[in-house]
Amino acid sequence: MIRGGLVRLYVQDVGQAVRFYVETLGMKLVEDGAPDSAVIDAGDGFRVALASHASRTRAIEEVAGSAAATLSSGSLSVGFLPKVPIEEAIAIYENRGVTFDLTREGSAIVAHFRDIDGHPLHLYQTLEDAARA
Length: 133
Description:
33% of the residues lie in helices and 37% in strands. The protein is of the alpha/beta class. The chain has two domains: 1-74, Roll (2,3-Dihydroxybiphenyl 1,2-Dioxygenase, domain 1), CATH 3.10.180.10; 76-133, 2,3-Dihydroxybiphenyl 1,2-Dioxygenase, domain 1. The strands form two sheets. It has a four-stranded mixed sheet. It has a four-stranded mixed sheet with strand order 5-8-7-6. α2 (53-62) packs antiparallel against α3.
């Protein structure tokens, strides 16, 4: 029913964030709205929109009431599904300086890490998906 999606992350420096997602994680830049925004293709129709904190402040000022509260609070973790066995993806990213905290959730391995702005991210792969990778 749903394929792909978009998550918006507010970052200190859009250029540095783009370099992390493109150079470190190997994703593709699809829209460059420098210096305030960019859109990264994370694969399979999933996009990561990066926006400066200044644009976040403007968005909050443009809305009122509960909508503003929603924009200014909350927590999430963005998950990515690796195309290769998760152990291989972890090894590649560790060589690029990414640090992981591994957990198991049932038959899945979850590798938690953070981007350069501290956003919680994770790789997620079930044993079944790993066999297909």
